[in-house]
Amino acid sequence: MSNSQRTGTVERKTAETSIAIAVNLDGTGTYEVSTGIGFLDHMVEQFSKHSLIDVTMQVTGDLHVDQHHTTEDSAIALGQALTEALGDKAGIGRYGSAYSPMDETLSRVALDISGRPFLVWNAAFTQEKLGEWDTELIEHWFQSVAQTAGLTLHIELLYGTNNHHICESIYKGFARAMRVAVERDLRKGGAIPSTKGQLGG
Question: d(Cα 33, Cα 97) in Å, to the nearest integer?
Answer without folding.
Answer: 25
